[in-house]
Design a protein that fits this description.
Elements lengths: L1 H4 L3 E4 L7 E4 L1 H4 L2 H12 L9 E5 L2 H13 L2 E5 L9 E8 L2 E8 L8 E9 L3 H12 L3 E10 L14 E6 L1
Parallel strand pairs: 3-4, 3-7, 7-8, 8-9
Antiparallel strand pairs: 1-2, 5-6
Protein backbone atom coordinates (compact mmCIF):
# COMPACT_ATOMS: atom_id res chain seq x y z
CA UNK A 1 0.00 0.00 0.00
CA UNK A 2 2.96 2.32 0.53
CA UNK A 3 3.58 2.23 -3.22
CA UNK A 4 0.04 3.41 -3.90
CA UNK A 5 0.17 6.04 -1.17
CA UNK A 6 3.38 7.47 -2.60
CA UNK A 7 1.50 8.17 -5.86
CA UNK A 8 -1.24 10.24 -4.19
CA UNK A 9 -0.16 13.89 -4.48
CA UNK A 10 -1.32 16.23 -1.69
CA UNK A 11 -2.36 19.66 -2.99
CA UNK A 12 -2.70 22.11 -0.08
CA UNK A 13 -5.41 24.78 -0.13
CA UNK A 14 -7.35 23.32 -3.05
CA UNK A 15 -10.13 23.89 -3.93
CA UNK A 16 -10.15 26.38 -1.04
CA UNK A 17 -7.93 27.38 1.90
CA UNK A 18 -7.57 24.71 4.57
CA UNK A 19 -8.37 21.76 2.28
CA UNK A 20 -5.72 19.24 1.28
CA UNK A 21 -6.82 17.75 -2.05
CA UNK A 22 -5.68 14.17 -2.68
CA UNK A 23 -4.70 14.10 -6.36
CA UNK A 24 -4.85 10.59 -7.85
CA UNK A 25 -3.58 11.53 -11.33
CA UNK A 26 0.01 10.32 -10.61
CA UNK A 27 -1.44 6.91 -9.66
CA UNK A 28 -3.59 6.86 -12.81
CA UNK A 29 -0.52 7.63 -14.93
CA UNK A 30 1.26 4.54 -13.58
CA UNK A 31 -0.22 1.40 -15.20
CA UNK A 32 1.24 -1.03 -12.65
CA UNK A 33 0.00 1.03 -9.72
CA UNK A 34 -3.46 1.46 -11.21
CA UNK A 35 -3.67 -2.29 -11.80
CA UNK A 36 -2.56 -2.95 -8.21
CA UNK A 37 -5.18 -0.52 -6.87
CA UNK A 38 -7.97 -2.21 -8.84
CA UNK A 39 -6.88 -5.69 -7.76
CA UNK A 40 -6.78 -4.62 -4.11
CA UNK A 41 -10.19 -2.93 -4.40
CA UNK A 42 -11.86 -6.11 -5.69
CA UNK A 43 -9.86 -8.64 -3.66
CA UNK A 44 -12.38 -8.98 -0.79
CA UNK A 45 -15.19 -9.59 -3.27
CA UNK A 46 -13.62 -12.27 -5.45
CA UNK A 47 -15.76 -15.36 -5.19
CA UNK A 48 -18.77 -13.36 -3.95
CA UNK A 49 -21.71 -12.87 -6.26
CA UNK A 50 -21.48 -9.32 -7.63
CA UNK A 51 -23.76 -8.63 -10.58
CA UNK A 52 -23.03 -4.95 -11.09
CA UNK A 53 -20.52 -2.33 -10.03
CA UNK A 54 -21.78 1.23 -9.63
CA UNK A 55 -19.43 4.20 -9.84
CA UNK A 56 -20.07 7.84 -9.11
CA UNK A 57 -19.16 10.60 -11.55
CA UNK A 58 -16.40 11.17 -12.36
CA UNK A 59 -13.45 9.32 -10.83
CA UNK A 60 -15.71 6.50 -9.70
CA UNK A 61 -16.20 5.74 -13.39
CA UNK A 62 -12.49 4.98 -13.76
CA UNK A 63 -12.18 2.61 -10.83
CA UNK A 64 -15.73 1.27 -11.07
CA UNK A 65 -15.43 0.19 -14.70
CA UNK A 66 -12.06 -1.45 -14.07
CA UNK A 67 -13.41 -3.25 -10.99
CA UNK A 68 -16.45 -4.42 -12.97
CA UNK A 69 -14.14 -5.91 -15.57
CA UNK A 70 -12.15 -7.78 -12.88
CA UNK A 71 -15.35 -9.12 -11.33
CA UNK A 72 -16.96 -10.01 -14.67
CA UNK A 73 -19.84 -7.73 -13.68
CA UNK A 74 -21.75 -4.99 -15.44
CA UNK A 75 -21.14 -1.30 -14.75
CA UNK A 76 -23.71 1.32 -13.73
CA UNK A 77 -22.76 5.01 -13.99
CA UNK A 78 -24.21 7.30 -11.33
CA UNK A 79 -24.27 10.72 -13.01
CA UNK A 80 -24.72 14.36 -12.20
CA UNK A 81 -28.23 15.66 -13.00
CA UNK A 82 -29.16 16.10 -16.64
CA UNK A 83 -26.42 13.85 -18.08
CA UNK A 84 -28.43 10.68 -18.74
CA UNK A 85 -30.73 10.46 -21.80
CA UNK A 86 -33.31 7.95 -20.52
CA UNK A 87 -35.77 8.14 -17.59
CA UNK A 88 -33.89 8.49 -14.33
CA UNK A 89 -34.22 8.11 -10.59
CA UNK A 90 -32.35 10.65 -8.48
CA UNK A 91 -31.09 11.13 -4.94
CA UNK A 92 -30.15 14.49 -3.45
CA UNK A 93 -27.46 14.97 -0.85
CA UNK A 94 -25.92 17.84 1.08
CA UNK A 95 -22.66 19.52 0.25
CA UNK A 96 -20.81 21.97 2.46
CA UNK A 97 -22.53 24.83 0.61
CA UNK A 98 -25.85 23.61 -0.77
CA UNK A 99 -27.12 20.38 -2.26
CA UNK A 100 -26.62 18.33 -5.40
CA UNK A 101 -27.89 15.02 -6.73
CA UNK A 102 -26.95 11.86 -8.55
CA UNK A 103 -29.06 10.15 -11.18
CA UNK A 104 -29.25 6.67 -12.62
CA UNK A 105 -31.33 5.18 -15.41
CA UNK A 106 -34.46 3.55 -13.98
CA UNK A 107 -33.64 0.31 -15.79
CA UNK A 108 -29.92 0.20 -14.85
CA UNK A 109 -30.47 -2.49 -12.21
CA UNK A 110 -32.78 -5.43 -11.90
CA UNK A 111 -34.52 -6.42 -8.69
CA UNK A 112 -32.10 -8.40 -6.55
CA UNK A 113 -28.93 -7.36 -8.38
CA UNK A 114 -25.97 -7.46 -6.02
CA UNK A 115 -24.03 -4.21 -6.43
CA UNK A 116 -20.55 -3.13 -5.38
CA UNK A 117 -20.31 0.66 -5.08
CA UNK A 118 -16.88 2.03 -6.02
CA UNK A 119 -15.36 5.51 -5.84
CA UNK A 120 -11.91 7.01 -5.53
CA UNK A 121 -12.53 8.71 -2.19
CA UNK A 122 -14.89 8.86 0.76
CA UNK A 123 -14.96 12.08 2.74
CA UNK A 124 -18.21 12.89 4.57
CA UNK A 125 -20.03 9.95 2.96
CA UNK A 126 -22.90 11.97 1.51
CA UNK A 127 -22.29 10.96 -2.09
CA UNK A 128 -21.88 7.30 -1.17
CA UNK A 129 -25.00 7.29 1.01
CA UNK A 130 -27.06 8.86 -1.80
CA UNK A 131 -25.65 6.26 -4.20
CA UNK A 132 -26.63 3.41 -1.87
CA UNK A 133 -30.12 4.89 -1.64
CA UNK A 134 -30.43 4.96 -5.43
CA UNK A 135 -29.25 1.36 -5.75
CA UNK A 136 -31.74 0.18 -3.14
CA UNK A 137 -34.64 2.15 -4.67
CA UNK A 138 -34.05 0.36 -7.96
CA UNK A 139 -34.23 -3.01 -6.19
CA UNK A 140 -30.51 -3.65 -5.89
CA UNK A 141 -28.64 -4.87 -2.84
CA UNK A 142 -25.44 -3.06 -1.88
CA UNK A 143 -22.82 -5.78 -1.33
CA UNK A 144 -20.27 -3.24 -0.09
CA UNK A 145 -18.72 0.15 -0.74
CA UNK A 146 -15.08 0.21 -1.89
CA UNK A 147 -12.85 3.30 -1.96
CA UNK A 148 -9.26 3.95 -2.91
CA UNK A 149 -8.94 6.70 -0.25
CA UNK A 150 -10.70 7.44 3.02
CA UNK A 151 -10.35 10.79 4.79
CA UNK A 152 -10.64 9.42 8.31
CA UNK A 153 -11.13 12.76 10.11
CA UNK A 154 -14.38 13.35 8.19
CA UNK A 155 -15.88 10.05 9.42
CA UNK A 156 -17.72 9.26 6.19
CA UNK A 157 -18.26 5.66 7.30
CA UNK A 158 -20.88 6.94 9.71
CA UNK A 159 -23.10 7.87 6.73
CA UNK A 160 -22.80 4.27 5.52
CA UNK A 161 -23.91 2.52 8.72
CA UNK A 162 -25.15 -0.95 7.88
CA UNK A 163 -22.96 -1.18 4.77
CA UNK A 164 -19.65 -3.00 4.53
CA UNK A 165 -16.86 -0.53 3.70
CA UNK A 166 -13.49 -1.45 2.16
CA UNK A 167 -10.79 1.20 1.79
CA UNK A 168 -7.19 0.90 0.61
CA UNK A 169 -5.57 4.13 1.85
CA UNK A 170 -6.33 6.25 4.90
CA UNK A 171 -5.44 9.91 5.31
Amino acid sequence: MHRLESLIRPIPNFPKPGIVFRDITPLLANPAAMRLAVLRLVEPFLGEPVDMVAGMEARGFIFGALCAQELAAGFVPLRKPGKLPHRTESASYALEYGTTALEVHVDALGHGHRVLLVDDLIATGGTAAASCSLIQRLGGTVVACAFLIELDALNGRRALDGHRVHTLLHF
